[in-house]
Every structure is written in structure tokens, then in C-alpha cells.
Amino acid sequence: MNSQRPRILAIDDNPQNIITVATALEADFDFQLAGSGPEGLALAALAPPDLILLDVMLPDVDGFETCRRFKADPALSAIPIIFLTALSDLETEVLGLSLGAADYITKPINIELVRQRIGNLLRLTQLTVELRASEERLRLVMEAIGEGVWDWNIAAGTMVHNASWCRILGLDQSFLAHSLQSFVERIHPDDLSQVQLALDACLSGAAAYVSEHRLRAADGSFVWVLDRGNVVERGANGQPLRMVGSVQNIDQRKWQEAEIHRLAFFDPLTKLPNRRLLLDRLQGALQKNRRSQQFGALMFLDMDRFKQLNDTHGHAMGDALLAQVAIRIQACLREQDTVARLGGDEFVSMFENLSESPREARQDAFALASKILGALNQPFILEGGDHALSYASTPSIGLTLFDGEDDVEDVLKRADLAMYEAKNGGRNTIRVFDQSACSGDWTL
User: Fold this and answer.
1) pLDDT per residue over 280-308, tens digit each?
2) Dihedral through CA 301, CA 102, CA 287, CA 436, nearest 10?
3) Rounded to an integer, what distance in angstroms lies between the CA atom of residue 138 and that of residue 130?
4) Three-class secondary structure of residue 418 per DSSP
């Protein structure tokens, strides 16, 4: 086995499923097979894999319980898990994600989809490892001498720095000593208030000073720094006289954090929030509705004739259409609304802060959905290779209201049902979940 390649532990009681995947991906990954949850746990304990492919429907100990046991073991809990399942209902997916699974892939398995998702998760895991290693190195360095050092004479309002502080910001030696105001002017305006709060807490003796903020460098750009310090001298009445601290450039760490966040919560093609971020925002919206007594609405949208476009003109054209769909939906939304891509040609929009009146909330939600319907009815001009294609792909839209008494799973199910009613009703239309009939045109 090539130790340089990522190792995948596949747990499935039907080895043929995994053998097919392993054969197709053997150039990129090494595979280890287990026929049950307990066998997979035992193999992982001997040699932890880089990623786990876990079948939901396993005998004796199912995939959900197996996932719980992996997450309960400190030595194995950080290993990303992708569920493989023939079940496509939302309840199953929500349960798996709540247990800590990183992703879901439905059967029959699309090899290219598996390759892409495994690659994304492994990259995300590597960034997390690098981030933790970077933070540990930072801790050791800061405990020793710190990279940049500052000394603030509080009474005189002056500051003195070492050469490393100047180097972080690209400043020359003339900035080794300057007024406090000169330092304050280098703090990013958006960060100034939180820096002031942290300094006030330290000066009062409530806590040591710790702040992550941006400082303006010599070239006008901003550098993220970790700034830490404490009062080292006080007067007879306890008033602070002198404070010293150190500064560390954390630009790289901030970039890694942003990249981890992007991979974990955003769709790489459309840059929209993914399912995980949508579920988080929907949960937050439900909590806000409990306080405000306002209604919100969830819209499921599926593009008609999308598969025909992929089959006839290739996936590049399909991707180009999805990117334009994302842009058009965003252009129709208000600032407080959210649009997410669930996968394939499925999009979900969440409309927040609607009326306290169900009737008015329905009117507002329907108006937004109609605006989106109209925008997506315009032909799409798709660029691909050396030619452009004009393509018509209309949406099927399902809507449901939600309030503070709802839960995430029920809201998603209702919107999904309404969307399928729109498909069955001839497409290019809007349907709303009706509590009594679960179908029908929108009525006010």
C-alpha cells in the first residue's frame, strides 16, 4: 500500500458496492473494507483511516449507531464520515448530519460525485490539521518571546515597538516610537470598538488584553494580528501607568479559517450556502420567530429540463446554467433572505421577517416566488467552448409558511412536497403546501 495516498475505510455489508467504487478510485485512494459496523470500528482502532464511507443499512448495528460510536471515541471522532444510502428522504439526511456525518451520497453511486466529495473533505481535514499545528506553533513562539513587542506609557500617551512589530506592517525604523493616536489610526474602523472594549477590560483589571483585529500596513492593505498584553505598572490608587504586549501576524490562519468555512458551508460552483448552512440558518429563523411572532416562508425550487441539458450538451453547460440560476435568484431576494443550493438543480430560498398575519405573509412570499419564477423564465445564454447556447429551463416551485412552533424537518418536508406538486402539475408553476390537501394552487 502506498502510504502517501489517503486511506478510505468503507463499511458496507454488500462488498460489491464498495469494490466497484474502490476499483474506480484506486488511482487516487487506498481502500480498506469492513462488512459491519463493529468490524469497521475494530479496523479503525488499529489504524485510523483518513475518511470513512459508511452504509446506513447495516445488519445488527446500523450506520447511525456505528456513526455514534465513532464520534464517541476521542481517537476516531475527528475522522470525516460520508453516509452511503439508498434512502433519499430528508428525515434520514437530517438525522445523519445531526450525528456528525460530513456528507450524504445516495445510491446508485455516482463515481465522479464520490471522488469530488472525498477530495473536498480530505482537503478540509488537512486544513484543519494545519490550522491546529499553526496555532500550537504560535503558542510556543508567543510563550517564548513573541514576534512583535509593544510598550505603552499610558500617562504620556506614547508607544514603543521593536523592529519585528514594524516588519509585520512593512514600516521603517521611524515607527519604533510614536504617539498612541498614531497606533489607533492604524486599526481597521470596523475593529476599533471591540479593541477598545478589550483594552478597557484590561485597564480596569477585569481581564488580560487579547484581541484579533486588522492593522493598516505601509502599503495601505490590512494585516490580521493577534494582539495580547497586560498592565505591568499601576499607581498608588490602582490607576494603570504602563502596559506591554506582543503582536503576531495571523493572516495565514485567518485565510485557513475562511477556507475551512467556505468548504464546510458553501457550494463551490454557485458560491451559495449549502445544505448544512441552510439548516443552521433555518433553525435560527425558527428561534427568532418564536420571539417575534412573525412568519417566514421556505421555497423549494427545481429546474425543469436540466437533465436534458446535461445529457445533450454536457456538464459544463449544466454548470453554467446553475451559476446563472443562482445569480438570478439572489437578484430577486431581499437583504435578509437566504438562497442555498442543495445539490444538482435543487435550490432553496428562505424568506424571513414576513408579517405576523398569515394572509399578509402568504402574499409577500408568493410575490417573491413569482418574481423568481419570472426571472427564471427568461432564456439562459450559456457559454461553452467556442459557441454559445440559448436554453430555456423553467422552475417548479414549492412554498410553505413556517412559524416559531415548527421544526426544521417538518418545514423542509412541506416545501419539498409542494415542489413535487408543482412538477406533477405541469411544471413552471408555484404550488403551496396546504395543511388539509397538501397541494393546489396558491390561494389568498
Assistant:
1) 999 999 988 888 888 999 999 999 888 88
2) 40
3) 12
4) helix
pLDDT for 145:
54
**Cβ-Cβ contacts under 8 Å for 424 (sequence gap 6 or more):** none
CA dist 205 to 98, 201, 218, 228, 232, Å?
Answer: 41, 6, 33, 14, 11
DSSP letters, 216-266, are: E-TTS-EEEEEEEEEEEEE-TTS-EEEEEEEEEE-HHHHHHHHHHHHHHHB
CA distance 408 to 372: 23
What is residue 98's predicted lDDT score, i.e. its pLDDT? 85
Give this prediction's pTM.
0.52
**What phi and psi values does residue 30 have, to the nearest 5 degrees?**
-100, 135
CA dist 54 and 153 (Å) reads: 60
Query: What residues contact 143, with CB distance under 8 A and at least 6 apart?
Result: none
Contact 422, 397 (CB under 8 A): yes
The distance of Cα 264 from the centroid of its chain, to the nearest Å, equals: 4
Enter the DSSP assignment of 337.
-
Pairing of strands 296-303, 346-351: antiparallel
* Rounded distance between C-alpha atoms, residue 18 and residue 55, angstroms: 10
Element (H, E) at 31: strand 30-34
CA atoms of 423 and 411, how far apart (whole Å): 19
> What distance in Å separates the CA atoms of residue 11 and residue 40, rounded to the nearest whole number?
6
Low-confidence stretches of the chain (pLDDT < 50) are: 1-2, 142-143, 146, 436-444
CB neighbour list of residue 183: distance below 8 Å, 6 or more residues apart: 159
Closest CA to 270 of 323, 308, 311: 323
Model pLDDT, residue 203: 94
